[in-house]
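Morning!

This is the sequence you dropped in the shared folder:
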Amino acid sequence: MSESGKKVIIADDHASSVMYLAVLMRRMGFQVVPAKNGVEVLKLIKISQPDLVMLDYTMPVMDGLSTLRHIKSDPQLKDVPVIMVTAHSHRSGVDDFAKAGAAGYIKKPINIKELHNLLQECVTYGGGKRRVNLRTTLKQSVSVSVYGLNKSYHAVTISERGIYLRTKEPLPLGAELELSLPLAAGTTLNVRGVVIYHKDVFSDAIDPGMAVEFKDLSALETGMLSAYITQSLAGDLLKEQDEDILTDKV
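The structure's back. Tokens below.
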């Protein structure tokens, strides 16, 4: 839950599209490299060595499909997954993306859940693992009860299945605890959890601490967490858009 951020190149000639998508991807834990067109992408990709490229289909100078073909024809770049972003989903265009080697495509306005599902397919972490659950940064204090004692920890990230807490002195692996999670509008969600791994101060972790997996969540609790995470990821972005770029609507 505290891995170093994967890197993504986001290419779109519309500044507002790059801005909102970049903010969302950063909140999802990615480092972002922006580009205006395909030519910029081809210059940046070898320098920045991204884990993922997101290409708008319609761009000046070099469009997304041409850029995709260049990437997949280069032996050094062909393994970098590419997601195509398009305002249209006509069958012929989608077929062209697949034939050229795209890992997938997503239609504007970009649905946050659909994007998350696509990222699961494209991006792997240590040991080939994939992030199954939607997550966001939290940056709040969380009250933890363990061994009859109450303690406050600073939360770094939260997902639908667990939370990462920063501390130099983590609880033992397997320790069972109770957490009070501050959600929206003053709501507090009380859940049980177990410590599943540590990152110490001498590791490559930006935030040393412990990962806690939630236990025995009800459907209601899972729904509350999912809604909170989606709102934390993009609630402010959805409100301030002057055009439809992101959406949480199915």
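Headline: Helices lie at 15-27, 38-48, 64-73, 91-100, 112-122, 219-240.

More detail when I'm at my desk.
O.
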